[in-house]
Amino acid sequence: MQAKKRYFILLSAGSCLALLFYFGGLQFRASRSHSRREEHSGRNGLHHPSPDRFWPRFPDALRPFVPWDQLENEDSSVHISPRQKRDANSSIYKGKKCRMESCFDFTLCKKNGFKVYVYPQQKGEKIAESYQNILAAIEGSRFYTSDPSQACLFVLSLDTLDRDQLSPQYVHNLRSKVQSLHLWNNGRNHLIFNLYSGTWPDYTEDVGFDIGQAMLAKASISTENFRPNFDVSIPLFSKDHPRTGGERGFLKFNTIPPLRKYMLVFKGKRYLTGIGSDTRNALYHVHNGEDVVLLTTCKHGKDWQKHKDSRCDRDNTEYEKYDYREMLHNATFCLVPRGRRLGSFRFLEALQAACVPVMLSNGWELPFSEVINWNQAAVIGDERLLLQIPSTIRSIHQDKILALRQQTQFLWEAYFSSVEKIVLTTLEIIQDRIFKHISRNSLIWNKHPGGLFVLPQYSSYLGDFPYYYANLGLKPPSKFTAVTPAVTPLVSQ
Amino acid sequence: MCASVKYNIRGPALIPRMKTKHRIYYITLFSVVLLGLIATGVFQFWPHSIESSSDWNVEKRSVRDVPVVRLPAGSPLPERGDLSCRMHTCFDVYRCGFNPKNKIKVYIYSLKKYVDDSGVPVSNTISREYNDLLTAISDSDYYTDDISRACLFVPSIDVLNQNTLRIKETAQALAQLSRWDRGTNHLLFNMLPGGPPDYNTALDVPRDRALLAGGGFSTWTYRQGYDVSIPVYSPLSAEVDLPEKGPGPRRYFLLSSQMAVHPEYREDLEALQAKHAESVLVLDKCTNLSEGVPWVRRRCREHQVYEYPQVLQEATFCVVLRGARLGQAALSDVLRAGCVPVIVADSYVLPFSEVLDWKRASVVVPEEKLSDVYGILQGIPRRQIEEMQRQARWFWEAYFQSIKAITLATLQIINDRIYPYAALSYEEWNDPPTVKWSSVSNPLFLPLIPPQSQGFTAIVLTYDRVESLFRVITEVSKVPSLSKLLVVWNNQNKNPPEDSLWPKIRVPLKVVRTAENKLSNRFFPYDEIETEAVLAIDDDIIMLTSDELQFGYEVWREFPDRLVGYPGRLHLWDHEMSKWKYESEWTNEVSMVLTGAAFYHKYFNYLYTYKMPGDIKNWVDAHMNCEDIAMNFLVANVTGKAVIKVTPRKKFKCPECTAIDGLSLDQTHMVERSECINKFASVFGTMPLKVVEHRADPVLYKDDFPEKLKSFPNIGSL
């Protein structure tokens, strides 16, 4: 028995030693080559998992990527006149390839500046309330002109907002009506507003008539169809959206810590089949009934019973249990998944409620994306990574949440709270493109008080405005000017 | 390892039952195994130097020795670039995954030399710049050598300059990369796209779904949110040493320095020169230079010779005109010289325009308006020009000056798209270091006026002055907007008085006992604080009237991001001692309010506890002093705003209490407080406190008006 023990101890000790040696050797080797690697790269703190293979250091004298005379020779060998090239561009890049350079006539804006003409409303044409509001906002703005010869931009009085053929608001024969307008000029310098396009089942983004070279101010526009620096993506708003003024944001005070009762909420329809159904169908995977509450209902449309699946009944009962407004007010993040179309009402609702939108709408060109930096106010998720959403938003630091939440309120009040603001923002964006050298920069658009209140015509220097001293690290000027109006004295003040 | 030990146990346990012959056999067997293991260990450990030296050989290997790959004539060709590609359609996010660092992993294919069927090389194997580019990636945090963990793949096939490669064969070389998969998640870098006569604005090599980091995109070829527009690197960046020249007016208002400008544009420029001879300079290629002079570095106006790029520093605005291509290396030279680029290239997508705000650093003028450019530029305010010059120089330093800078910015942009919630902010991308340093971004930037109904929470820090504490509690409880009272009991040796002994007040009273007698306990963001507004009040401040406190709260509501308080103090620069001095005497100015009685936002409790810079928090706790000064520094630093002093009162403690403080005690106190200011200023690296000369009083204060009609009649005496 003694011998047995001895053998046992000896052998196990031996094998342990051997293994130790083996692994120890490996580790030592790794750490040595690691330190060499760091020495070599000359940077500290970088960890390279397997440092043996990195880009080699060649001792050769390599040739530069551009021979010293290539560019000069190429430039001087170009014979085509730039003027001709510009003309050629504007004849090639039409339709889906329209850009300001090719489809917009800048000369119309030269003489009178940025003036917008609205076609007179024709008798017998019905115009839905939302479009009435849009037209009223333009007519009430400082851009409006009633004289088409002064105009730089033209807006139709035909209601183009709802181009869903199944909708009661759908205007028929738009194609021929538009073609008969004598100022139409194939849509050049025209702006067309649209909220809904396409219809069941595929919801294409076609507005159903030839828009020629007109610009689109469209909701739910996808990045594939969006013509950058030509179209404007506008938010989807309901017919009850106020014409002017508009409600304030719901945030009255900042709470510390900034977390609310729910982390993430959603309440909305679930589409059982067809376009846009995938994401909403998968939401239940993330729902935990505690701080992540994602509710869907199948109960919509006439024949929902026919298509309903095994989850419908359970979902519907859960759905009834929660009040949407209560959830909206008490959630840190609000999920904004795509519906049939890319944009949904949930977006503006969340924004107003200071509930940070979590976008799940792949390929949606976000509203006013040309000027608004949405990363400051929303979390841009990816439909393909739905299951990562909870861990993603939980990883967002509280300070960031505080900033995101305040930014939702700023954006809501600056650009979205009324139809007038949406329309004016659209027009200002277009104006900035036309007069590029006196346009607003990104700081103006994304900081309080926002682009509608900062007119670059006053000054293009930010330090001339009172809002940006802190952002630029400037001090207000130390001198002032006295202005005395010389008027007839009033009897009493 | 333990598992393997257990496994070994089983062997020897069998041995005694066997015969000696077998035993010897087993012992031999085990010894062999053991020796084998040791040998492996030694081998792993010892021959390291041999192996690594072969590594080093690999590194030192010349470009001429890289493996050659022969491309058969009929080898597959990728599809042309897909113009509809976007991140959500053509990019495989699953490869990038969710990771706590929010960093993508980039793999670089090893270098090969590609030849066609007849052995003719497809291109110059690798250029200096592309080698620098790949080195930059491999030295960065993004790099991985594990192809299976990579999110982004960078081929080592050099396509920086389309002019130096054979299009079809290069495409074939791309298609045979081991993970090509229609180019998914592959990133190609190209600075000079297109070729004569049309000069397309994107690389002509068929590349299927690969992302393109291209110099010279036009809006028609650029896939927004998918491609990255990069600068054309100027070799002069490395070759020429150009000391920085600060912003300000310069000799020439407008300069054109490009050599091969199309005659049509040159006509326009010459017309400008003729009209504004003094302030416009239009240069051209030198024709009469003697041999051996590097003409790339010279420009001429008639017979006058100018040195390039030095001459750029003599101009306020520099024209960057399109040539055969939209992207021009001259843009980089111009930015470097701190000259504001006037970009005349219709439809050009500016470098890194996804993140850089070019409106702050450049003027974009339509080609058609080239002849009006002088008038347009004249309309720009002088101070804005200086801003733009500074900004231009910063863009060059951060994103143009080296291949490495260009590469890392490109990868960061892609990284920002994949992890948008962790993306760099506008300020991080665009603010030059001076602005970053001097600007403040107020965390409570939204102008809100909290509703009065919320009220405030009073926090009283106390140690053992129970009698005085009870008087403070009774006084404060009379304030209408008080919603809760929190007593922070900082004495560990003594229990707070029994519940029945506390004053009976109309709002909840809560006592928090602390683990240690630390001053920072008063600024802890207790969960019990349910209001935004916090009133910090010492346990001996008994003079403040209910009207004074209510008025203070009303003022705070108007300025919720400021410290609103009663006892005002000032910091002064002592010229003799060359340091800061603390001042509590009657002065015209105020820069601090003491938190012995002050309203502020609860957020600052959070900042004080978790985000106080340096060792200030510990220092305060160790010295048992200056927590109020530290709070003033913190708030002023983070908001860039001054305190608000309310009401005229100067005395706050009961007369008998102040009598105890002798003059000498007072003096050491002042010295200590001055030390605090100096200490904090050095930790913050600046003096954040703002001096103001105003105070807030009720509208009808001191007016000859019936007291009973005033909202705050009892504002108290001095």
How would you describe this structure to a colleague?
- The complex is a heterodimer of chains A (493) and B (718).
- Chain A is of the alpha/beta class.
- Chain A has two domains: 84-245 and 418-492, no CATH class; 262-414, Glycogen Phosphorylase B (Rossmann fold, 3-Layer(aba) Sandwich), CATH 3.40.50.2000.
- Chain A contains 17 helices and 13 strands.
- Chain A has helices at residues 2-41, 70-76, 82-92, 100-103, 107-110, 129-139, 174-179, 277-282, 304-307, 312-321, 324-329, 346-352, 389-394, 398-416, 419-434, 442-446, 469-472, and strands spanning 116-118, 144-145, 153-155, 162-163, 190-194, 196-197, 215-218, 232-233, 262-269, 292-297, 331-337, 356-360, 379-380.
- Chain A has a six-stranded parallel β-sheet. A five-stranded parallel β-sheet of chain A has the order 10-9-11-12-13. Chain A has a two-stranded parallel sheet with strand order 4-6.
- In chain A, α12 crosses α14 (398-416).
- Chain B is α/β, with parallel strands linked by helices and 718 residues long.
- Helices cover 33% and strands 14% of the residues of chain B.
- Chain B contains 21 helices and 25 strands.
- In chain B, the strands form seven sheets. Chain B has an eight-stranded mixed β-sheet with strand order 17-16-15-18-23-19-24-25. A five-stranded parallel β-sheet of chain B has the order 9-8-12-13-14, sandwiched between helices.
- In chain B, a hairpin with a 4-residue loop joins β20 (568-574) and β21 (579-583).
- Mean pLDDT of chain B is 89; it is low at 1-15, 46-58 and 659-663.
- Chains A and B meet through α1, α2, α3, β13 and α13 of A and α1, α2, α3, α5 and β14 of B.
- pLDDT average of chain B, as an integer? 89
Into which percent range does the helicity of residues of chain B fall? Answer: 25-40%
How many DSSP-defined strands of chain B? 25
Calculate Rg of chain B over CA atoms: 37 Å
Cα(first) to Cα(last) distance of chain A is 117 Å
Could you report the average pLDDT of chain A, rounded to the nearest whole number?
88
> Spans of chain B of 5+ residues with little confidence (pLDDT < 50)?
1-15, 46-58, 659-663
Largest sheet of chain B: 8 strands, mixed
- How many strands of chain A? 13
